[in-house]
Design brief:
The structure holds two protein chains of two kinds. Chain A folds into two domains: 2-132, no CATH class; 135-181. By secondary structure, chain A is mainly alpha-helical. Chain A is built from eight helices and no strands. Chain B has seven helices and no strands. By secondary structure, chain B is mainly alpha-helical. Classes of the chains: A mainly alpha, B mainly alpha.
Chain lengths: 181, 160
């Protein structure tokens, strides 16, 4: 029972403090699941990869997967419900006020102050996860991993390739590599 | 995100439940909320069309497909992380996931950090989280507080 409550509280908090959606939830989630000892950085990367390939909101995908991995079916339910609650409850309570709040100068000022924090959090999380790419006893990721990283980053930023397409390409590269080696 | 065109195609063009500007407005509000954007959008669209019950039905309907697909995948891989094909695919996937997070940070930074101080603040936040000095929640609250304080300091005061 304890673990379900813990999952619920943790994902509720993650959702409560993730503003603007998209990738902004990833630093909070990575921090929480490693701090609780639920997932290693490497396994978090694996779950993130599956969540990118699968359609549906990535935050829901991650919550369901991490919840199941930690405590089975009811863990998945607890994490998924918790991740959906804060945003929907706030909108239900605020009602039409939410429409006016967004145009307030104070709200926009708060968002401007938030931006450096969000960029910094994403950067730190990327670095933290990159250390999971380094094999035990080595100082640097393998040549193969570095090449996949560089190619994926280039295609994502300059060719605007969809993450799911990139993921499928990267998975195929991994399988092809194992067949050659 | 690629969700808005999908909502438009279904709600505006096919069902004719909402106008295109309404959909865009609801989406913009959903996006400046907390949590899951698509869930927020479902709440707003459900409220607009039906009321509280509509919001509830819309949220459940937008979450359930993703929930069951991921649940099935999670059950499938649960005992098979060491499977030859899966672990080979993951060796390729992991660096690509890191690349996407770096790309997301780069895009967000390019769009929002244009001057020296915000860039320095972002670098400081990155160091503080990486070195485990602060939790993400603390840094987020700090960012909001700094934004509000600067706003009130710069606000023109009424003449006495």
């Amino acid at each position: 029972m304890m673990i379900y409550l813990q999952l619920f509280a943790t994902f509720f908090e993650i959702s409560l403090f993730s503003i603007g959606g998209g990738y902004n939830m990833i630093p909070l989630m990575q921090h929480a699941v490693t701090a609780n000892g639920w997932l290693s950085a490497e396994r978090f990367l694996d779950i993130l990869a599956v969540s990118e390939i699968t359609p549906g909101p990535i935050a829901v995908n991650l919550a369901t997967f991490a919840g199941y991995h930690t405590a089975g079916f009811w863990g998945a339910v607890a994490a998924t419900v918790a991740v959906c609650l804060p945003g929907s409850v706030i909108l239900l309570v605020l009602g039409s006020l939410a429409f006016r709040l967004r145009d307030r100068p104070a709200f926009r000022a708060a968002m401007r102050g938030l931006m450096p924090a969000l960029v910094g959090l994403l950067t730190a999380t990327a670095l933290r996860l990159a250390t999971a790419l380094i094999p035990a006893g080595a100082h640097w990721p393998s040549l193969q991993a570095s090449v996949v990283f560089a190619v994926a980053l280039t295609l994502f930023l300059w060719k605007n390739l969809h993450p799911a397409v990139l993921m499928l390409g990267a998975a195929a590269t991994g399988v092809a590599w194992s067949l050659v080696a | 995100m690629a969700a808005l065109p999908v909502f438009e195609a279904e709600l505006v063009n096919r069902r004719r439940w909402l106008s295109a500007p309404d959909t865009a407005e609801l989406f913009a509000i959903a996006q400046s909320g907390i949590g899951v954007i698509i869930v927020n959008f479902a709440v707003l669209a459900g409220l607009r069309l039906v009321g509280k019950r509509g919001a509830f039905v819309a949220v459940v309907a937008v979450v359930l497909p993703a929930f069951f697909v991921i649940l099935a995948l999670a059950m499938l891989v649960a005992g098979n992380w060491e499977n030859r094909w899966l672990s080979a695919a993951l060796v390729g996937l992991r660096p690509a996931v890191v690349a996407i997070i770096v790309g997301a940070a780069w895009r967000l930074g390019r769009a929002n950090l244009r001057t020296f101080w915000p860039i320095l603040a972002a670098a400081a936040c990155a160091v503080l989280l990486f070195q485990r000095v602060c939790s993400p929640v603390v840094l987020i609250l700090l960012g909001i507080a700094v934004g509000l304080i600067l706003h009130w300091l710069r606000r023109p005061r009424p003449a006495p």
